[in-house]
């Protein structure tokens, strides 16, 4: 026996290395996965590993790494699990054995990847069921050291307080329900208001020095206002009197004001209809009595001017010479319109800036000219002031 004990001690021997009856037996290829738990309860090696309550593997080893318990489980190669598999320590019954339950992700979390040999299921994806001992200990704490003994007293006092006040309590509950419902409907606005208050508080905190300076200056400002209180009171009284007067004036002139506005309506309407024509008509004010284009006629110190003259030779000669010429026949004088370009000097030049005078024949010598075959002599020329040279210039070929 001593030799057997010595042999067992020298070897790294554990009872868990001995074959045990029952348990899961994996045939064929397999792989191992390490699982982290915050509390493994009384989980021991050789415990079963289940998927959907079906035994698929076994627990190989359990050890402590710092404050985290680690469990190495062995699974068959044919079992395909996603990389984000969850693990839970459960019990077969109320007082049954513990086992590791593997489950695929559910809900909004979608399965991804594939669980391979040597991978780790982290603490964030593992849980443990509540032990019966924990439930009983919590219940004993509640019954022994809690307020269960006072529940009857609390119930009796509540009955006394509520008896006879049912309508008022019902009304309070109704109002409370309405209040809570209104708060729930305006939840977004309340959150927005709180956010705005938070932003305002941040801005006030950033301007803390300025606010402190303003608060320090308030006493002086208030003292100045106190000195000017009488003047401020008089100002407000004057404003009140002005307001009353303005109200009285507006009330008395209301009809006239409305009538004036109605009278202005047609004028303003016509002005609006005039549109662009009104500004164009105002351009004449700066060049009156000449149009705006008159400035383009001035070239240097002369002004270009075009004159259209209606010429009736019968009337002209009759007025100038006192002759009665035939209006029909071979000796009738032509009538028509003659356009003459005239260049008028706009500033004194060689000619002194004035129009030249036409010479008038003088003297006692008898002078005769022929106008369309009719002789006209000196006495008639003197009476009319007619200049033969001017007549020849005006009517070449008609005056000889």
UniProtKB/TrEMBL annotation:
Residues 114-302 form the Mammalian cell entry C-terminal domain. One of its GO terms (cellular component) is extracellular region. Residues 30-103 form the Mce/MlaD domain. Transmembrane segments: none annotated. It holds the Pfam family Mce4_CUP1. This is Phospholipid/cholesterol/gamma-HCH transport system substrate-binding protein.
